[in-house]
Amino acid sequence: MTHSLKQKLTIPLIGLLILIIIIIIGFFYFDKLLSKPLKIHDIKIDTKAALKLNVLKQISKKNGVKEWELTAASATLLKNEEKAVLIDVSIIFFTKDNKKVHLTSEKGVLNTKTHDMIFSDNVVVRHETSVLRTDKLHYNKKEHIITSNTHVTLEKENSVIEADSMTTNLNDNMTILKGHVKGTFSEDFNIL
């Protein structure tokens, strides 16, 4: 072989040998890197939570009759407290005559034992053409009533009624407003 032919073959062979060495070193390096346990920093653990759920849906029935249907964007079940903290709550209450009362709120707390609930932050209750707004509302499952001890505003068509507190019996379809009750009524206002 001539000297120039040896030189032409030697350069690519040396390049190929260097490439193979780099690949072998890279393989061992990445294998060692991947076999090490991954360290994660700044983990936040909720020590009060027993369980966190994304999207909760629950239905409550009494004697086979649906009382309410609850949906929440998230729920955190608290340890040793029999409570679930709810976010972005939507609930439909069913009356005795099977009419629907829709409630939405930003936050809620469900007692997992009694199924009583507290709703807070932008609470809106809709029933047929009526809309009730308040900051905080309680639901008593045993009596199937909703109550608010904070300022409430009830709107129906072009009429508005305000009061300091409110109680609605969902079975009897009756609402009682108390404390500084005042309102503006349109001519064709019908409370029923």
Number of alpha- plus pi-helical segments: 1
The amount of helix comes to 10-25%
Order of helices and strands: HEEEEEEEEEEEE
Classified by CATH, the class of the largest domain is Mainly Beta
Strand content: over 45%
Annotation keywords:
single chain, 192 residues, alpha+beta, lipopolysaccharide transport protein A fold, 12-stranded antiparallel beta sheet, 12 strands, 17% helix, 53% strand, elongated
SSE blueprint and pairings:
Blueprint: H1 3-35, E1 49-62, E2 65-78, E3 83-94, E4 100-111, E5 117-127, E6 130-140, E7 145-148, E8 152-156, E9 159-163, E10 165-169, E11 174-178, E12 182-184
Antiparallel strand pairs: 1-2, 2-3, 3-4, 4-5, 5-6, 6-7, 6-8, 7-10, 8-9, 9-12, 10-11
What is this entry, summarized?
The protein is of the alpha+beta class and about 190 residues long. The protein has one helix and twelve strands, in the order αββββββββββββ.
Q: Can you offer a commentary on this structure?
A:
Strands 1, 2, 3, 4, 5, 6, 7, 8, 9, 10, 11 and 12 form a twelve-stranded antiparallel β-sheet that branches. This protein has one helix at residues 3-35, and strands spanning 49-62, 65-78, 83-94, 100-111, 117-127, 130-140, 145-148, 152-156, 159-163, 165-169, 174-178, 182-184. It is an alpha+beta fold. It has one helix and twelve strands; from the N terminus they run αββββββββββββ. The protein is elongated and about 115 Å long. β6 and β7 (145-148) form a beta hairpin. 17% of the residues lie in helices and 53% in strands. The mean pLDDT is 82. The longest helix has 33 residues, at 3-35. The N and C termini lie far apart (110 Å). The chain has two domains: 1-34; 49-184, lipopolysaccharide transport protein A fold, CATH 2.60.450.10.
